[in-house]
User: Fold this.
Amino acid sequence: MLPAFRLSLVAAAACALAACAVSPPSGKNAMTPSFVVSPVLATVHRGSDDLLSAGLGLAGLRGAPSAYADPLHPTSAELRRRAIQASWKGIADLGPLGGYGSVYGAVPDVPGREYTAFARLPGAHSPHRVLLQVPDHFDRTARCLVVTASSGSRGIYGAIALAGAWGLPKGCAVAYTDKGTGSGYFDTADNSGVALDGTRAKAGQAELEFAPANAPADAGIAVKHAHSGDNPEADWGRHVLQAARFGLAMLDRAYPDAAPFTPKNTRIIATGLSNGGGAVLQAAGLDDTGLLSGVVALEPNVHMPGHGRALYDYATEAALLMPCALADPRFADTPLARVHGAVPPAFLARCASLHADGVLAADTPKGQATEALQKLHAGGWRDEAIATGASTTAFDVWRAVAAGYASAYLRRGVGQMPCGYSYRATDASGAPGAADPAVRASWWADAAGIPPGAGVGLFGGTDHSADPSLPGLRCLRALWTGTDADAKTLHASVAELAAHLPRAGLPIWVVHGAADGLLPTAFTSEPYVAWLRAEGRHPLYWKVPTAQHFDAFLALPAFGNRHVPLLPYGYAALDRLWAHLHAGQPWPEDVPTPAAQVRGAATLTRGQLDLPP
Assistant:
């Protein structure tokens, strides 16, 4: 167990900064679950603040990052507001043509309370965050708890644009988990991390979200997902189930006269997207006690050995081959695949490198691009996914994902990442250096959980050639294709990610974009759904035409003109599940996939989404 916060200090700081009240356990129904390893911080959010947008509303969410009165010492309330805003912007299309708030979705004012704490799974080295949002209009006659996990490696509010936006206005409470990831970065240079209220504190002065043991002072930035030593992805389903139990316990605390809240009297809906989608599907397979009433998973990172492909496998393959494959003429009009109409020099350099390595036999750039594309096709990649994978390639996401996940799978600590990688604070030029104090103070709100970004860079694994990232990528790929001890350890860790078969009769709806280039349907949702159906389960599945992985990218004209958002289809699936659970409407045997149409250069219309009435 980690040492507990001094409750009086937490209460004083939080109430001074965020108009809150800290509620100690009181009575049988307010007992804190044994897996909670800190005091529960209870805060009230009304008036100029609220649960869904921290008082920003839709216009404020769309605007510039919310400001701090003192950038060197942002308050807990300011950090929370900015974290919520960053989570919305990272997930939803809030652009002027995207239709959020008019065609689908809404950001109403939702006053209420939050309960947050650090929790721990048995055997875990590090704690993680859990959070419950309880709207003031919580419906005690139709008790509803939505449980979710953050997308990507984001912090605790990472799924608010899906679970919070759908559940809170309906009167549901919403329980969140960061699933052992998050943005509680620890700076080994000044021995500081993130406290429960989001502010920074020195190790030993407060309980921290992540504090690596015995970290050298020059080891750089420690990130929980990559450096905790826990391979958290293997436990994402357990995180979700634990968050649901935390939510029930906090509802007991919020409404002691209506306690106990149990799965028998409270409908529990699990929903998430991307890594959060994979987490709720993991939870469905582990839910032996019937905790969950239904599951809606969007673009899930789900893995079943023998079905589809593991993320690490196809990410490292794409990191090597996709730059060259995108030089093929068929991608000439693909956003981010050309620079001023020409193939980027980096793509051609990769083709030449792969030829020199003997991976590609062709001796011309055109032939090399064709050959690289053929290899991707042989691995199951489709052109629609490769085209949107151009953004993942241009933004160097494949390398960032592979380096961080390799460290997690090998259970490496800070300063021990494989293939020579490390996370370092960056100066204004992007070079490694001491962290800017104002940037560091805002990491909890601004960072996405896997660098680079927010003043933290990914360094190492490079040389001074025309293709500088190739050495590290070769090394990362060899961890999958090789047979040495590290490769065996990595494969064993990936095997731990396997989803289990959910119980018969559990309503499950998987929603995925046909053009997803980060988690392609061919490797994830399609084999998962096929597996369930072969085992006698009856999941619903929407493979939405033209939808890709990042709704937030649709604010860019090149993306918004070509792709529909995925969030409205997640909301629609949740609506149908709610009608089944709350109103008793029959659960359908099948639901036709909407015939989505892109908006082009105009504003999105409801008809283009082809949503069910």
